[in-house]
Inverse folding.
């Protein structure tokens, strides 16, 4: 039974190979498809690139409940308009406010990030910025050391 299965499989492979190799691949090329593929590939090269001055901001030591703000400045170093589709944070205590209008190539934009100062001790929050770049998203970070109100600043003991 195994021999029959093996022989039958071999015959099928030979038959399929001989049938599929009859047509020349060069005869199957359609000139219109080649032209549209070239146009498509050129359009794919037109992408925006988001270049940030900094991707992390440290607020240092802050008192709990003290609102903080920072601005992440970026430049579109690509060759197509940059459109930010979404900006979200890892927690509700951090609110990103991206620009609504497209950023032209060579132009700069600002992403305002507000942090309400909640948490305790060392806190790190991430902001994910989704845009029409090749990567699709960028990750920004804010961090702070949050002290309880009236707490003594941490430091070395003498």
């Amino acid at each position: 039974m195994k021999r029959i299965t093996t022989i039958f499989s071999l015959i099928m492979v030979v038959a399929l190979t001989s049938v599929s190799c009859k047509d020349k691949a060069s005869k199957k090329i359609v000139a219109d498809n080649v032209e549209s593929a070239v146009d498509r590939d050129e359009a794919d090269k037109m992408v925006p690139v988001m270049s940030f001055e900094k991707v992390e901001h440290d607020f240092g030591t802050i008192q709990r409940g003290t609102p903080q703000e920072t601005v992440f400045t970026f430049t579109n170093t690509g060759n197509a308009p940059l459109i930010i589709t979404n900006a979200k944070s890892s927690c509700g205590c951090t609110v990103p406010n991206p620009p609504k209008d497209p950023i032209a190539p060579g132009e700069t934009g600002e992403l305002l990030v507000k942090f309400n100062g909640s948490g305790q001790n060392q806190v790190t929050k991430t902001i994910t910025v989704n845009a029409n770049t090749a990567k699709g998203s960028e990750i920004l970070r804010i961090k702070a050391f949050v002290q309880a109100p009236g707490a003594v600043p941490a430091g070395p003991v003498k």
